Amino acid sequence: MTQHANDPARCAEAIVDRVGREIRLAVPIGIGKPVLLVNALCKLAETDRSIKLHIFTGLSLARPRYRTSLEERFAKPLLDRLFGSYPDLVYTKALQAGTLPPNIEVTEFFLQAGAWLGNAHVQQHYTSLNYSRVAAHLERIGTNVMGQLVAPEPHGGARVSLSANTDVTLDLMAYVARRRREGKPIVFAGEINANLPYMPGEAEMARDAFDILLEPSAPNYDLFAPPKEPVSLADYAMALHVATLIKDGGTLQLGIGSFADALAHALILRHTRNAEFRDLVGRLGKPASDAELEPFRTGLYGCTEMLVDAFLALKRAGILKRRVTDREGKAAALHAGFFVGNQAFYRELREMPEEQRADIAMTSISFTNTLDGDEALKREQRRDARFVNTAMIVTLLGAASSDMLEDGRVVSGAGGQHDLVTLAQALEGARSIIAVRSTRQQAGVATSNIVWRYGNATVPRHLRDVVVTEYGIADLRGKSDSACVASLLAVADGRFQQPLQGDAQTAGKLAKSFELPGEARRNTPQRLSEMLDAPRRAGLLPPYPLGSDMTETEERLAGALSRLKSAGYVELARSALAGLGANVSAQHRDALQRMALDAPQSLSDRAMRALVLGALRRTSA
Questions:
Q1: Cα distances (angstroms) measured from residue 561 to each of 327, 457, 478
Q2: pTM of the prediction?
Q3: Are residues 26 and 143 in contact, defined by beta-carbon separation less than 8 angstroms?
Q4: Residue 164 φ/ψ region, left for φ over 0, alpha for ψ in the -120 to 50 degree band, beta for the rest
Q5: Mean pLDDT in order along the chain per 10 residues (621 residues)
Q6: Which domains occur in the chain, in start order?
């Protein structure tokens, strides 16, 4: 019988009464965490040290810690507005402060990217797992409590929806039922939040499916909603290349971030402004003879571990429209396991007409990331699949690192990338596409992301397939080592090609007589700007193609501050010099007011004003 309560503390005590003082708690990644319930359990364990609380999860979202005064001036008002009443997780605050009690342990299989690089507890307790294997791991460790944020059925209905996180929860339902049959302690706890979009289909459950249901008093807290990042010219160049690999009538998977936004925009241009799309592709070089350039007639089917707003944009544009039907006759244009997004994304899902929302089927991660289950039907439906992911580093022999630094510190996690790369190898006509920016900036110094060797591989070289940089497409599947090296050299930044070529030749993987084509040696950011600056200025390649929750002033500031963040001393000096002078445009005056730098009093504030104003002027120019 389901126990209902509106007090998180009472729910936490009820959990201890049911399973005992050793709690192995599993909660979903991202926004599906029942924050009030988890916080109540943490506070109970802090008070009663005889309770041992082991939390297993992924992607524990936390507000960023500001590293500089500039960051705080820009980000704090924005995040306060976007996150609203979202309550911080007690355990993330304790982890940040180094005050987590010894009787509470937190293990994650996927981390908020870059947020925990310097945190010893998080790094030591991270568990590397493929997404598709998480449910099996939770069974193996004897999970005895599952917690989930759920959406109430609109208009007071009798059901709830797993909403943003059907991913692992659906895969664990058989385990929950088995423990109940065997009389072993298990609690399936839900926490209701009306801000979650109500997703139909497999996500729907009866309220009595839960052992404990927390129904806090209204209003419910806001969902965690990370702001958008601006799309760079490198993102757009990669996206335009990838857009020529997407077959009409095929299947698409992609993730979150500025590159995914760029790819959605490129596909929409291909479909709705085809002549301009072809011109953009042509600016980057002559497309391959088998390049996909036509608008979408049949359309795409989405099968992805993560639902992002890029898919909603493709749906609005009439691209995501190939529907597949299961054995029970239920049709959908997209299957996904979980979602995270900005407030506009959540709002669109909440306000979407029921018949359109029914076209988006939230399901288990075993469905999206594997061929388990009805393999024959999955093979039939997932034709010409393109699994599009990003990486930090690619070696010249085709291995990709997406989750960890060479010294072993975890940036994020393997997640489902290896699952999907393997799936691409198993499906006829499918390809895995890894997009990687050819360089990164560190204190104003460019470093190549294509390297000879690297101390970590998320995707091993024997699974190499397609790698795309802003400078082109390297098709590596089935290629010899020398052909793989040559293909990746051709899409590397020109400043690093010669030393990379020398490394490969020294190792005997490339003939001493090898010469790069002359066109490839012109791979430079300056040339990329020459090719795409005009379309950018014309508004064809906007910084926020899918919109953002920021004001126009904040969007301008985001671009300028991003420039300062990656700048070296020389660039910072140039920005400071550009910021001198009394003449300030109305737009720049608004930006300075937003940063509370319009009337600086201290010397440090004057210096910050010059930096920000200079960056704004240089970005505008």
A1: 52, 32, 43
A2: 0.94
A3: yes
A4: alpha
A5: 92 97 98 98 97 97 83 88 90 96 97 94 96 98 98 91 98 98 97 97 96 94 91 97 98 95 98 98 94 98 97 98 94 97 95 94 98 96 98 98 96 95 97 97 88 96 97 97 98 97 97 93 95 95 94 88 77 80 83 88 87 85 66
A6: 3-214 (3.40.1080.10), 228-381 (3.30.750.70), 391-537 (3.40.1080.20), 552-620 (no CATH)
